[in-house]
Amino acid sequence: MKNCSSTLSNPHKIDARSTEITYSEFEKVEIRVGKIIKVTDFPEARKPAYKLWIDFGALGIKKSSAQITNYQREELIDKQVLAVTNFSPRQVANFMSEVLVLGAVLDDGQVVLIKTDRDVPLGNRIL
């Protein structure tokens, strides 16, 4: 078992003191399935990142800045991912990021993408 005190120094680890939210608050967050259709390097970003274009079906194509450079660009094309689609757009350097791609942050800082276990229709909402 890991030392629980180490989780307090890493904001991506479980913290028993985190703020609880209600189910109705959670329902406001729209997490949807998208497919990455374009990936480019993002040298202007402060931390290593890619620019992503993600197809969300009827919702259209949305852009995202994602710190997922542990993946090769080629392996990201056509990959289904989960993303929060109803945050306000956020300016990242010279790029407007419209959605937040979801991933688990490992101890070494690498991000592992969250995905479905099989292909599902683009734009479907995750509950």
From TrEMBL:
One matching Pfam family: tRNA_bind
Record keywords: RNA-binding, tRNA-binding
InterPro entries: CsaA, NA-bd_OB-fold, tRNA-bd_dom, Tyrosine-tRNA_ligase_regulator
PANTHER family, per database record: TRNA-AMINOACYLATION COFACTOR ARC1 FAMILY MEMBER, TRNA-BINDING DOMAIN-CONTAINING PROTEIN
Residue ranges constituting the TRNA-binding domain according to the UniProt record: 25-127
GO MF annotation, one: tRNA binding
Transmembrane segments: none
This protein's name: tRNA-binding protein
Species whose genome carries this gene: Gloeocapsopsis dulcis AAB1 = 1H9
